[in-house]
Amino acid sequence: MTGPLSAILGFGLFGVFCLAFTEKILPIPPSHVLLLFLGMTAAPDHATLAILLAVTTSASFAGCLVWYAVGRRIGFDRADRLIGRAGRYVFLRPETYRKLGQAYRRNHVRVSLLAQFIPTVRNYLPIAAGALCLPALPFAAATLLGATIWNAAFLLTGYLMRGSGQDSFAIGLRIIVIVVALETAFMLALRYGPTWRRRIRLMLG
Question: Which residue from 126, 69, 73 is spatially nearest to 97, judged by alpha carbons?
């Protein structure tokens, strides 16, 4: 994996932008793996780290806008069928997509922000935002903020792992486990959150 990545990084910041943009369209390698790798290998100092954050966030944001435009173009029904047919190939369950699409109708800004912290979902939920014709400006602002936080967290972690003397593979694996755990917690909250809120309101009278 590092061979092709290193070759692309040979093109400098343009290569970094292409990697981050392509990951947003097709999440191979996953963004957290890519960002950890960039933080560990391509950021010799704080200034370069900040530049990498700006470039990768711009690329991620551009990828989201592409999928938003696709959703606006094809409409909700066709977007739903597209995810139903192709979702399993990119590890996105159609049920997850539909639940988040329903949540979008209730609070699109919050979901746009939180979606940026869920692997795979963060790539393709902008299709739902476009298909539902959600306002572009709030969607863009929430997506940009979420992408900045996500990218900064993994780039900084990779940067701190650089030269730490610790087993980078073991640390990276633990980080991926944490990401998956957070994704699971979010999906549980999405599924059972309304029920819990109703019960709390009933308990409080």
Answer: 126
